[in-house]
Write a structure and sequence with these properties.
The protein is α/β, with parallel strands linked by helices. The protein contains ten helices and ten strands. The structure holds adenosine-5'-diphosphate and magnesium ion. Magnesium ion binds next to α1.
Amino acid sequence: VLDAPAVLQVRHLSKSFAGLKAVNDISFDLHQGEVISIIGPNGSGKSTAINLISGFLAPDSGLIDIESQSVAGLSVPDIAECGLSRTFQNGRVFAGLTVDENVGLGFHKRLNAQRPFKGLQRYPVIRWLSLLAETALALIPGPKTRAENRDVTERVGREIDRFRERLGSRRNDYAYTLSYANRRRTEIARAHISEPALLLLDEPTAGMNQSETAEVLRQLQHLKAQGHTMLLVEHKIELVTALSDHVIAMDGGRIIAFGEPDEVRHSPQVVEAYLGK
Ligand code: ADP
Ligand code: MG
């Protein structure tokens, strides 16, 4: 994996909030087909790092390259176009759309270069409205889009098939009727369907029970076996160990350890960081 080209390069990345260094000079590479997990106590800067890489926050300093394109400070849609997809710590889906429509949204992200509200994209609400508008436009049947819609429906069907154990029977149900775990499955399917060069997952199994966690682990192992490149924030150490090629441990905004899962989890710095909280 280390011989593969770098999909993500992060150099000296920093972000402060009112003087608090949430992310403090972090650097790492993520190679094609590699899975890296970021661990660390609450408040250590994991979500901030993910938000910087995906464009939800602008860095104070540092470089971020995705497939050799510099993306630091670009907007969320522009970074998405460079091949990044992500999920969120608390599982965001569009409550008023069905499972199919939510997953289809991820596919339209690829199909639709057209971006209404361009220029206003720096406001998060507008970004989401714009995504929603794109979907709405794409879902309106018309002579030009009917064939495309059929393709999308078929592709969405195949995507949801992987989650058939739980999600297959819910395709036409509105997302607000779904269980928490099914919302998170929908979110992972939506992120994956665009075949991103880089998939960021912020605590994909947060709030899930043991069997749900095991099922998501199987899904992610499947994605890894297909060669997907993933950056994961995760607390559950068994999942981290089972899935990751390398682990980054953060504390106080800094990287305090990097290496193979067992090496990192037993390193004195990491043990101390967790005990100290
Ligand atoms: P983690 O995901 O590792 O739990 P975060 O990246 O969410 O940690 O937070 C790192 C630090 O930055 C914390 O001290 C947190 O309170 C602070 N922080 C995060 N986001 C913001 C924000 N938008 N405004 C102010 N402080 C923030
Ligand atoms: Mg977090």
